[in-house]
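Supplementary Data S3. Sequence and structure tokens for construct A.
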Amino acid sequence: MGLGLLYAKAGLTAFLRHGGDLPSATRSADVVVDREHLAAYNAVCGFRIGETLPVTYPHVLGFPLQLELMTDRAFPFALPGLVHLGNRIAQARPVAVEEPLALHVSTGNLRPHDRGTQFDVVTTAAVAGEVVWTGTSTYLKREGGSGSSSSATPPPAPTGVWRVPADTGRRYARVSGDRNPIHLHPVTAKAFGFPRAIAHGMWTKARCLAAFEGRLPDAFEVDVRFKAPVLLPATVDFSTDGSTFALHHPKTGKPHLTGTLTA
């Protein structure tokens, strides 16, 4: 089933989902990287063209499997309204563009959150039986509650200032397949309570990691938490001390994203 049909299915079946346990079903596929698609992804996210994959790219390769699993009849939560809280990627070694990948997607770790229920979607990429990449996306199913409040701290001085065009959501949707309406147009975003379209969380993560290109170790872990959405168009402040990084709103100082890098 195409991604567009899966999104339609998610909307049409949302009222049938009432919580419960996560299914034990998984999804798997063997993929070969399309260099033209990779080049388009690199252009949108700010990566250079090279012979190894950007660390965030396997997430895009696995996204159709993730969406298929999360729109399955057995999945307990409606896809519209889920909040992407964070994403952790562990790369065991650089992945060459020409290496065929065996992808596997599962869900698990259902647990309480102070604003509802959270769970993980785990994607692995293996080469000849060796897992070389693992991505864990954490999602929230909101069920009331305002969450714990925290005192604001002054943001660090920016090391870069980025302008994010209004069409960033649409451009990233074309290369990622993630066509959630909140990212595409102000009109569709307003239907879900946003004043304007918002940038994909995984685009913000990829854009931050593009700023480290050429300085990352072969094996590392990068963990980000998605905070306030980036309303498009936007100007954002990027800051890093080498092991942590963040995106902040330049006027309010509120964080859009915080992340850590661990070798």
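Construct B, processed identically:
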Amino acid sequence: MRVVFAGTPDFARVALERLLAAGFEVPLVLTQPDRPAGRGMKLQASAVKQAALAHGIAVAQPRSLRLDGKYPDDAAAAREALLAARADAMVVAAYGLILPAWVLTTPRLGCLNIHASVLPRWRGAAPIHRAIEAGDEHTGVTIMQMDEGLDTGDMLLVETLPIDPQDTTALLHDRLAALGGRLIVEALELAACGGLRPQPQPAEGVTYAHKIEKAEATIDWTRPAAELHRQVRAFDPFPGASTSAGDELLKVWAARVADATVTQPPGTVQAVDAGGVHVATGQGVLTLTELQRPGGRRLPATDVLRGFPLQPGQRLGAAAAG
């Protein structure tokens, strides 16, 4: 089976590597254009592009696939490349571009998407983050037959995974990426023998995983400690939960809900000890256990405090400026 692959980040790279290991022929990879990254803001190829080049696969990087859009030349060149690939199917994983109708119908078996949730919950851009943030106990991967809607296509294969109470987006991402790679191989093998049984998504339970914005990173200490704990986990590795402490902005990379009583207004440091920084919230106490100062590294809170002492009674967040 000839399979065109469309994807950009590491989540997609795992699936591409799994397809190649399973013996599928991948004549063409579509991925996002190189982007500036790192301190030097040098152009950097996506994880998928790097993997494709390492395997000697042709790569196309259109800025758009809409023939009547802003970059018609990019779309036309991509169309020519896709037609020349003579693909039986196209696999899409975290690609980042909308696929118009001409793309969806070009491969003989259409386009199969690897989506990191159990649809119809968490359609959209950030299903892993939002599942942790919402406190979901389970998530999973859906292999979906793509249509022109936003993650609305028929389900082909579904498998669930439990979300551990300490999971971060980084940890859960890796398990879901591995699951997605395994399921897409199974789906294509079933497709080859006509064994797929598409099922419409349930009408009930639709939620949308909106893109993560940097503005969401700021910790609102009036919220309950349990919600803030989920926020910290959901925003690791991006964008990282943060709070002001005096004139500095601290990143909070790890925390736990403390077995303690709130005795101070939200955002107040109630205690500092070997276990971390205990901060009052709107409901309960959150203990900060891993922090990062501007320009520094992620470190245990006790290490950060050696050069940046936080004192009981000090106010964090918006209250710090008051």
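The domain at 3-209 is CATH 3.40.50.170 (Rossmann fold). The mean pLDDT is 95.
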